[in-house]
């Protein structure tokens, strides 16, 4: 007895639509319905691919927008910190100027009072001597 050999012609083949068919029937069986289904499924596959690409592009755009918003937020925070540092420096300068003004005013006041006291004392002494010598 001769053993039957099974060739590739007896194994089912898978076409692009995902359905399996026998190699002997292919897509010519019936009234051509097999060919029509494969073309419609390939167009649905391409539309699915377009939808996937659009979704990926939208997600990437959203991620880029979020990153840009975060960068702008960080830049705003840095500007606010710089403004606060400048304000603190201005306050320090104002305090130093106030201290210098207070010191100058106190020194001038002390010197003026001392000079006025000396002048008053000298004038009183001169008037006293004049009064004693002439009267």
Automatic annotation (TrEMBL):
Keywords: Membrane, Transmembrane, Transmembrane helix. It comes from the Eukaryota. Residues 17-29, 38-48 have a biased composition (Low complexity). It comes from Melipona bicolor. The lineage of its organism: Eukaryota, Metazoa, Ecdysozoa, Arthropoda, Hexapoda. Residues 1-48 are annotated as: Disordered. The chain crosses the membrane at residues 49-69, 76-105, 111-134. This is Uncharacterized protein.
